[in-house]
């Protein structure tokens, strides 16, 4: 039997080999008619999943370098770091230096534990360059500003879950990431919706454990969450092999403040999100990919909702308590993808703290 999951000997991230007894029947099935209309031949990629990720990451690097080369003369700015003990004024580079750079000037421990930043009171990614003179606060996962940091933590977990889903299947299985809705912490799970050409697929416990292992591997690598705003045409070029992202990008750019699309990169995995994200995948502690549900009433046929639960690093729960969270996270999360409210949710979350 052919396995739909990657084995430890295949290209991509390593994990244990999973046998799927029903795979021969599922993997030769054609796309549903409605899905075929969203997967035109021009979007059909001849690249492997690994090659597609590397291509996207390379384009990310090229655009980042292009933007850097257009900056011209470097302008110095003052960043006032607001700490508990005292205020510290740092001279940084406008449109180049980031809160993470400031944190490293303070100490490596501060840089490692800071999850997100507040720049003049506004939620700001740790790897997002400063645009002018400002006041800076650094927020950790144990900060009293729980609303802001929890939102970023769950959004980052969703992105990592997308990276897991994107890499877990072999190349003969068509997989296209669709979207991940605004985090709703009270729902009990973070989620990512994915098109998979495996009709009526139900993951086994072994497959869920394999995906959890992939997630944990990414957290152990302590990968930075890099942020980059790009023009619409650049985003379309990067995601030309994904029909859903290609369809969403023009609307995302149209509804942004500057007609641009915000991207994040984790290792060689690039995705679209308005953010914010936490600084590093290393801020995640205990994690479980808890369930995958087929969406009966999704925006397109063939969508599966991947769900997971995670704790911040350093937050400990006994096995019984965490099992309660896992059980809750197995239930279908009914959150809906509504891209037009993401900015509003971020602002509301920030104002609550």
Automatic annotation (TrEMBL):
Q: Does the keyword Isomerase apply?
A: no
This protein's UniProt keywords: Mitochondrion, Protein biosynthesis, Ribonucleoprotein, Ribosomal protein
Q: What is its main location?
A: mitochondrion
GO BP annotations listed: threonyl-tRNA aminoacylation
Q: Which GO terms describe its cellular component?
A: mitochondrion; ribonucleoprotein complex; ribosome
Instruction: State its location(s).
Output: Mitochondrion
Which superkingdom does the taxonomy of this entry point to?
A: Eukaryota
Single annotated GO MF? threonine-tRNA ligase activity
Instruction: Family membership, please give it.
Output: Belongs to the mitochondrion-specific ribosomal protein mL39 family.
Q: What is this protein called?
A: Large ribosomal subunit protein mL39
